[in-house]
């Protein structure tokens, strides 16, 4: 699972095909609209806590209406180059999937990753929900 990290408005045009974005700058409502327009199939936007709490209500409502999850969290060790990405390793995804299958609670799964700086608790919850949703969809189609 890859998270595209954008640090400025100029990077919005690099989002094509991205499903999760971390925005390092303080986005306006218009920035959120531009990001969604650039990537209509986006599932989540992550903002640092300092920006999360100051996002306009209209931007927050818009994200809810279009089904984009708003996640609070920092990206520690962001690469300095442009067009950077953060990859959540397959090992972490597999570990989460195994814990879900074993019947562990979401809280227990999140706590098991408490030593990690990335991903944040909120991002872990999003990943857990995505894995559960994918499992439900897959089992319905079988």
Structure summary:
By secondary structure, the protein is an alpha/beta fold.
- Shape from CA axes? globular
Number of strand elements: 5
Question: Over the alpha carbons, how many angstroms does the gyration radius reach?
Answer: 15 Å
Provide the spatial order of strands within the biggest beta sheet: 4-3-2-1-5
Look at the helices and sheets and give the structural class: alpha/beta
How far apart lie the N and C ends? 24 Å
Q: Could you give a short account of the major beta sheet?
A: 5 strands, mixed
Could you describe the 3D structure shown?
The two termini are 24 Å apart. With 142 residues, the protein is an alpha/beta fold. It is globular, with a radius of gyration of 15 Å. α1 links the parallel β2 and β3.
What are the SSEs and their pairings?
Blueprint: E1 2-6, E2 20-23, H1 29-38, E3 44-47, H2 49-52, H3 57-66, E4 69-72, E5 85-87, H4 90-101, H5 106-112, H6 121-141
Parallel strand pairs: 1-2, 2-3, 3-4
Antiparallel strand pairs: 1-5
Helix pairs in contact: 1-3, 4-6, 5-6
């Amino acid at each position: 699972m890859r998270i595209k990290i954008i640090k400025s408005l100029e990077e919005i045009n690099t989002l094509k095909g991205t499903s999760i974005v971390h925005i390092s700058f303080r986005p306006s409502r218009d920035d959120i609209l531009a990001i969604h327009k650039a990537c209509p199939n986006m599932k989540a936007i992550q903002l640092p806590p300092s920006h999360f709490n100051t996002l306009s209500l209209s931007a927050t409502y818009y994200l809810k209406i279009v089904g984009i999850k708003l996640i609070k969290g920092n990206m520690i060790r962001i690469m300095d180059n442009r067009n950077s990405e953060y990859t959540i390793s397959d090992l972490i995804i597999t570990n989460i999937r195994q814990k879900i299958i074993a019947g562990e609670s979401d809280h227990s799964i999140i706590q098991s990753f408490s030593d990690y700086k990335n991903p944040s608790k909120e991002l872990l919850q999003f990943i857990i929900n995505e894995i559960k949703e994918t499992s439900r969809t897959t089992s319905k189609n079988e």
